[in-house]
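Run log // design_07
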C-alpha cells in the first residue's frame, strides 16, 4: 500500500427534528470502524470522525477532506446516518439540525458529495453509505412524504473524476430498503453496530474478507464478503456497488494471508537453465534450486521456492515431480501437531507443552495465531511453548494456526477442565486440626501434573498432652461416624472423582468422534489431491509437456473473433448499397431482363456470401475462446478474464445481426430471382 491513506467517518445518531428517529448504530459504527481502519496492521489510515454535526460543519469537513490531495492518495468516506429523499427523488444525508422540509438548506445533497469526489486529485476514493433510507421517518410523521423510490447508486454514477484513477460507492442497501440496525429498527435498544458496518469491521479485523487469501483485502473481496454476511442476517437488505476505477484497490492487510518474504531472484544463468530446451539441463537446475531452498538466507530461499513452483506448474511430468519433492522440504511440520492436556483441575496451572518446528529455515519461518483466548503460545529457539487457561470448567478444544510462505498447518489442542478437589482438613506436625485421629495420607495434583504428598499421619511428633486431647475428641466423634469430618471428606472426594471420571469418558468419546471425522477429512483431501494430480498429468500430456495456458490463447481467440465480426459488419455495409443499386437498376429497366444480371453487375452476391461466412466464423471462434477459457490449465488474471469475455460478447453482438440481415437479403434475392 503506497501513498497517503485518509478516512473520514460521519456518524449522526441524534436529530433535533422529532420526525427523524434517533438511531442507535452510528456511534458504535464510528468507534468500531475507526479502530480497524486506523490499525497500522490492517488499514493504516489516518482517521477523522465527525459525530452529530450540523449541516454547515459537515459540508466544510467533507470538502476539506477531498481538497489538497495527491495522485497516489487513497480516500475513504463513510456515512452512518439517515438518508432522506426529496419530493423530486433526490438523495440527501441528514445532519443533526436537518429539517425535512428544508433539505437544501439543512441537509447534505448527494450531488454535493459527488462533486467533491469528482474534483479531488486523489487517485482513488471510496464511499461507504450505511444509511437508513426506509427508516428515516417515524411512523405517522407528516414531516415529509416518501412516495416512490430513489436509486441510491444512481446519484453517484455521473461525473467520473477527471484527475484521479476513479472511485467506488458501496451502499448498505439499494433503493429505499431498510438499512437494519441489528435485527430490527428499534429506537430504544442498546447501541451496537449496524448489520452492514459490523460486517465491514469483522471482515477487515479478522481477515475473513481476504477471500483469495493473498494477504490483502481488496475492494471486491470486501464487497463480496459484506454482501454475503448482510444477506445471511437480513435477506431483505441488499448491499450494492458501483465502481469506476482502474486496477485493483487494496483496502487493508489481511491477518489470514500467508506471510510474504521479499524474494532474492535466482541468477540469470540458473533461470536460463530452468528454461532450457534440454530436459537434463532443467533437471540439474532443479537440483540447484533445491539446494538454495535450504539456505539460511530467507530471501534467497524464497526466490528458489518461487522458481520451483513455476517448474512444478509448467514443466513435463518427470521434472515437475522432482520440483514437487523439493518443495516438500519446506512444508510446515510441527511436532507434535496434537496436544492433549487431559483432565486438569479448575484454576490450576498445567505443565507447558513444547512443539518443535523441523525443516530448513524457510519451513520454520511462520506466523502463529491461537484460535481461542484460553490458548497462550510463546516462541522458543526450537519451536513453540503452549499453555492453557483453566479458569472455566468443561472440555476445551481449539487450534493454533501456523501460516508460512507456501502453506498453513494446524496444531490441535484439547483438555478437560474439571472441578477442583474438595478442600481437605489441614494438619500440623501432631495431627489434623479438627482432631481426627483417623485421617489418612491425602494427595492433590500439583503443577507438574504428578501427585505431591501434602499431609502425614497424626502422632508422628508433637506434644503428648495435645495428643491426649485429640484422642479424647476422636472418641467423642467416633460415637457418630456419620458426622465424622473424615467420612464427609471421603464422600466429597468420591463424588468429585466420579464427576471427573464421567467428564473423562465424555471427553474420550468426543475425541474419538473428532479423530474419526479428521480421518475422513484427510481421506477426502488425499482423494482430491490424487484427482488433481491425475488431471494435471492429463493436461500436461495433452499439451505436449508444456501446457499452453488459457491466459495466452483465450484472449487471442477473443480478439480474432472480434476482428472477424468487425470485418463482417464492414462487408455487409459495403454490400447493402450495391444491393440497393441493383434493385434500382432493375426498376429502371422496366422489369426486362433478369435480376441475377443486375446483382452480378454490382458484385452483390460475393460480398453477401463473404459477410455470411465471416460472421459465422466469428461466432465459432468466439465460442471456442469461451470454451478454452474454462477448460485450459492455469487460472487467468481477473482483468484478462473480463477482457476475454467482453471481447467475445461484443463479437457476438456484431456477428449475430450481420448473420440475420445477410440471410434476409439472400432470401429476398432468391425469391426475387424466381419472380423477376
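design_07 sequence
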Amino acid at each position: 500500500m503506497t501513498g497517503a491513506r485518509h478516512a473520514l467517518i460521519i456518524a449522526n445518531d441524534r436529530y433535533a427534528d422529532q420526525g427523524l428517529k434517533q438511531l442507535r448504530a452510528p456511534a458504535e459504527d464510528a468507534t468500531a470502524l475507526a479502530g480497524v481502519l486506523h490499525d497500522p496492521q490492517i488499514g493504516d489510515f489516518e482517521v477523522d470522525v465527525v459525530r452529530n454535526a450540523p449541516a454547515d460543519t459537515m459540508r466544510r469537513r467533507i470538502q476539506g477532506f477531498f481538497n489538497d490531495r495527491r495522485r497516489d492518495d487513497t480516500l475513504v468516506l463513510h456515512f452512518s446516518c439517515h438518508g432522506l429523499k426529496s419530493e423530486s427523488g433526490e438523495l440527501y444525508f441528514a445532519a443533526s439540525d436537518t429539517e425535512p422540509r428544508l433539505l437544501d438548506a439543512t441537509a447534505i445533497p448527494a450531488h454535493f458529495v459527488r462533486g467533491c469526489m469528482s474534483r479531488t486529485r486523489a487517485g482513488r476514493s471510496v464511499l461507504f453509505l450505511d444509511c437508513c433510507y426506509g427508516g428515516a421517518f417515524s411512523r405517522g410523521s407528516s414531516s415529509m412524504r416518501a412516495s416512490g423510490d430513489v436509486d441510491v447508486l444512481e446519484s453517484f454514477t455521473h461525473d467520473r473524476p477527471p484527475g484521479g484513477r476513479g472511485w467506488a460507492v458501496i451502499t448498505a442497501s439499494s433503493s429505499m430498503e431498510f438499512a437494519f440496525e441489528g435485527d430490527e429498527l428499534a429506537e430504544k435498544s442498546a447501541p451496537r453496530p449496524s448489520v452492514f458496518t459490523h460486517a465491514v469491521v469483522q471482515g477487515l479485523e479478522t481477515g475473513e474478507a481476504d477471500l483469495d487469501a493473498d494477504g490483502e483485502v481488496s475492494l471486491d473481496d470486501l464487497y463480496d464478503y459484506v454482501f454475503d454476511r448482510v444477506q445471511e442476517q437480513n435477506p431483505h437488505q441488499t448491499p450494492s456497488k458501483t465502481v469506476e476505477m482502474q486496477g485493483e484497490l487494496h483496502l487493508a492487510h489481511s491477518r489470514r494471508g500467508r506471510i510474504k518474504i521479499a524474494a532474492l531472484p535466482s541468477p540469470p544463468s540458473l533461470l536460463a537453465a530452468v528454461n532450457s530446451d534440454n530436459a537434463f539441463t532443467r533437471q540439474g537446475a532443479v537440483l540447484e534450486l533445491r539446494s538454495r531452498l535450504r539456505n539460511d538466507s530467507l530471501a534467497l530461499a524464497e526466490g528458489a521456492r518461487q522458481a520451483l513452483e513455476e517448474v512444478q506448474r509448467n514443466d513435463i511430468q518427470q521434472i515437475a515431480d522432482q520440483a514437487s519433492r523439493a518443495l516438500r522440504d519446506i512444508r510446515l511440520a510441527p511436532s507434535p501437531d496434537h496436544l492433549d492436556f487431559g483432565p486438569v483441575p479448575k484454576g490450576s496451572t498445567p505443565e507447558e507443552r513444547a512443539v518443535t518446528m523441523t525443516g530448513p529455515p524457510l519451513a520454520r519461518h511462520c506466523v502463529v495465531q491461537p484460535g481461542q483466548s484460553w490458548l497462550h503460545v510463546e516462541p522458543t529457539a526450537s519451536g513453540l511453548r503452549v499453555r492453557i487457561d483453566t479458569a472455566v470448567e468443561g472440555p476445551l478444544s481449539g487450534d493454533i494456526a501456523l501460516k508460512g510462505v507456501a502453506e498453513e498447518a494446524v496444531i490441535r489442542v484439547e483438555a478437560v477442565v474439571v472441578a477442583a478437589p474438595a478442600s481437605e482438613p489441614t494438619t500440623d506436625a501432631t495431627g489434623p486440626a479438627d482432631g481426627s485421629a483417623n485421617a489418612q495420607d491425602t494427595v492433590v495434583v500439583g503443577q507438574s501434573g504428578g501427585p505431591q504428598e501434602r499431609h502425614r499421619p497424626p502422632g508422628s511428633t508433637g506434644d503428648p498432652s495435645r495428643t491426649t486431647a485429640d484422642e479424647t475428641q476422636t472418641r467423642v466423634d467416633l460415637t457418630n461416624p456419620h458426622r465424622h469430618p473424615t467420612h464427609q471428606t471421603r464422600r466429597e472426594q468420591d463424588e468429585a472423582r466420579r464427576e471427573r471420571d464421567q467428564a473423562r469418558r465424555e471427553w474420550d468419546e468426543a475425541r474419538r468422534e473428532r479423530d474419526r471425522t479428521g480421518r475422513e477429512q484427510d481421506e477426502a483431501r488425499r482423494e482430491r489431491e490424487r484427482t488433481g494430480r491425475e488431471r494435471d498429468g492429463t493436461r500436461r500430456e495433452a499439451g505436449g509437456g508444456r501446457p499452453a495456458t488459457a491466459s495466452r490463447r483465450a484472449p487471442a481467440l477473443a480478439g480474432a473473433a472480434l476482428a472477424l465480426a468487425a470485418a463482417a459488419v464492414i462487408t455487409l455495409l459495403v454490400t447493402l448499397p450495391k444491393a440497393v443499386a441493383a434493385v434500382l437498376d432493375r426498376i429502371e429497366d422496366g422489369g426486362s431482363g433478369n435480376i441475377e444480371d443486375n446483382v452480378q453487375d454490382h458484385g452483390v452476391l460475393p460480398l453477401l456470401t463473404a459477410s455470411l461466412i465471416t460472421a459465422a466464423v466469428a461466432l465459432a471462434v468466439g465460442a471456442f475462446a469461451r470454451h478454452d477459457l474454462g477448460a485450459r490449465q492455469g487460472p487467468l488474471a481477473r482483468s484478462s478474464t473480463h477482457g476475454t469475455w467482453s471481447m467475445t460478447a461484443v463479437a457476438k453482438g456484431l456477428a449475430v445481426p450481420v448473420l440475420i440481415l445477410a440471410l434476409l437479403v439472400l432470401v429476398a434475392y432468391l425469391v426475387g430471382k424466381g419472380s423477376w
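The chain has a mean pLDDT of 75.
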